[in-house]
Amino acid sequence: MAVTKLSERMVCRVLGQHRSTQRQVPRGRDDEEQLTADLIELARQYGRYGYRKIAALLRDAGWVVNDKRVERIWRREGLKVPAKQPKRGRLWLNEGSCVRLRPEHPNHVWSYDFVEDRTHDGRKIRMLNVIDEFTHECLSIRVARRLNSTDVIDVLSDLFVLRGVPGHVRSDNGPEFIAKAVQDWITAVGAKTAYIAPGSPWENGYVESFNARLRDELLDGEIFYSLREAQIVIESWRRHYNTIRPHGSIGYKPPAPEVFVPAFAAWPTALTRPAPPAKLTLVQRPTLN
After folding, report:
1. pTM (2 d.p.)
2. What is the pLDDT of residue 86?
3. How far is CA 215 from the centre of its chain?
């Protein structure tokens, strides 16, 4: 007996059914729930990251996912992308500006600046931040109640011994930086100084951008009850910034990655130890007997 093949349109017309009742309902991807859980966990831990940085962290953790899919889930879950910094004009004629003196290789141009905050008792703490403008790596954050030109020389001397003498050292023109002792010492070790124009912090754009990230991602969300606590937490964040945090300006890669450190073993996870998300698991380092 021959079997006659009928079209879907004809069968639905005979049975009096709408054609949509015969269509297969899309189920979505099997890993959607796990991916969403991992994305939300990362967004909770790194609350000031946008979806592109979260996508980079997911890929580092083993997910094969593109930015568009992460953005779709990000918006579906109602997560908010951090606001962008306002644009500011630049000065083009100063010899020390980041427009005229661009870093060309590691150790070519370092820059440094102060950031201030307060502990819970209202006492001031100061941070001296030093970065390599080419690699975007934060070389040091000195945290103390008071910092002066002697501390600047102390921090730079330690870095010069560890990493060599840079070609240029760019800084603000505050009293700690224009102190004759600092200028003479930098010149004596073979580096050149590059001061920005007065009242033009955007000319020191690399370290100013770093200061904004430090304040936005850490200082604005932390209460420090003592100087020692501030030193430990800030140093932990600095290591996370160098080894884990995706940097959009360098292809969403960290400036100084350490391949043996898992994505969930750095700040702030090391401080809070939350339960791992659905797909990612904490990797334990082997112990040496």
Report:
1. 0.63
2. 52
3. 12
